[in-house]
Model the fold of this input.
Amino acid sequence: MCHWRRSQNANSYQPVLVILLLSSSVTMCHCRPLLPNHLVDQDFINAAWLVTNTKMARTMLLGDQRFHKRQRRGSVVALESDKWPNGRIPYVLSSAYTPQQRAILARSISAYNAKTCIRFVPKTLTDKDYIVISKLDGCFADFARVGGKQQVSLADECIEYSTIIHEFMHVVGFIHEHQREDRDGFVQIRWENVIDGASADFEKLSAIGLSNYDEPYDYFSIMHYESTEGSKNGNPTITANAPAYTNLMGKSTDFTEGDLKRVNRAYRCHNILLRRHPPVPATPIIPYNAQNYYNLNNRPLWTG
Done:
């Protein structure tokens, strides 16, 4: 830095070089750059690099749905006031997620883009109703559209494709399949094996205000618990009336056809209802307003 000092001749100045030492040593910053509060192009590109054929157990989902304006009830949201207008769900994403975690989130959102007319979009200044996706405490989501800011907690142990799909289904307006009002014709709850304090997750709920959209009970729904979910002793908490299904239910790692039909009927996704649903595309669908953020040369080569 250059300063000027008055010389002995009061009418002239001489330049003096002053070196400011900001610290006693030069240090390197290894801080991770702050990631944007929404997914960007590179997150969706990275999603295509994830290995998708590795079978992973779904995270335990007890207590993962929260209800606000309404009592617990039903199967799939039917009241228009509880739906997201035009299937558009604005979101804000915490900067705490790593690039790999963002890629898994992007893969999950790509599945909704490909198979439904639901669109998770970055929140704008004019959006009053929106979700905040962050690492709070485990895996849970507010049910349907609450109004204003609502929470989706996806902690580190929840960042797995099928778990994210499941939690986003709560946001869309789905409750657990085994809580349908007609569930007694298909499953039995073994209350003696349920963890103390978890009974609310196994209650049968009234169908008032919701609908099954003419879809039968689905043992394989992404919204169905496994047979030992919430067990305090390792024994089943849910058994199928048709015994062959007991060890199969709740094992899905993606939407079933029944799940998709109900989403698309609830939100009137007519064009999608006319076609069969392909697997998640190898080239993920990128939101129209995504931005480039990462350097392609630094693209991670992930294996899971």
